[in-house]
């Protein structure tokens, strides 16, 4: 009986992991920059972060109101793993056991979580928009390269709302599935 219970738990956990492996190999549309960008938003979804040495996945919720942001990372079962709060120019990272403060959230995340999301830029990219006043390194069929990051839009809800975004740079690959 115990063997069957362990097998059942393993099957459930492995099937949960497959939900986060967002496999979209071919974009569904050609990239056209949306005309609308929101300075405030409340989005949620799933993330999958792939590095050379490990993978991480879970859920996220992100509330942005002008210069204030709160981003929660949770496990597939809903436990908060990390919380990021950006208030004007200050950044705070809360983990299960410590709190970290600083001005650059990318550095704080990389030093303490082992990965960093480009949060200084992601609020544009997550809406399908290039960073204003910064040149594009390269235009792609389904996205663009900017500041060394390759941003691909693999699927869209409509002309202004991306559904699946893949962001990559130097051995780091981030996929976001945005819920609407």
Q: What's the short version?
A:
The protein has 180 residues and is of the alpha+beta class.
What tags apply to this protein structure?
single chain; 180 residues; alpha+beta; outer membrane lipoprotein receptor (LolB), chain A; 3 helices; disordered N terminus
Detailed description of the structure:
This protein is α+β, with helices and mostly antiparallel strands and 180 residues long. It has one domain (2-179): Lipoprotein localisation LolA/LolB/LppX (outer membrane lipoprotein receptor (LolB), chain A), CATH 2.50.20. The chain is built from 3 helices and 11 strands, in the order H-E-E-E-E-E-E-H-H-E-E-E-E-E. It has helices spanning 2-20, 105-113, 119-125, and strands spanning 40-50, 55-65, 68-74, 80-87, 90-95, 99-102, 138-140, 143-146, 149-158, 161-169, 172-179. Strands 6-5-4-3-2-1-11-10-9-8-7 form an 11-stranded antiparallel β-sheet, with helices on one face. The longest helix has 19 residues, at 2-20.
Give, in order, the helices and strands. Answer: HEEEEEEHHEEEEE
- The CATH C-level class name: Mainly Beta
Question: What is the count of DSSP helices, taking H or I runs of 4+ residues?
Answer: 3
The name of the CATH superfamily reads: Lipoprotein localisation LolA/LolB/LppX
Q: What is the second-level CATH architecture? A: Clam
Radius of gyration over C-alpha positions, nearest whole angstrom? 17 Å
Biggest sheet descriptor: 11 strands, antiparallel
End-to-end gap = 42 Å
| Poorly predicted runs of 5 or more residues | 1-20
DSSP strand (E) fraction? over 45%
Number of domains: 1
Give a count of the beta strands, DSSP E runs of length 2 or more: 11
Helix content: 10-25%
Overall structural class, as computed from helix and strand content, comes to alpha+beta
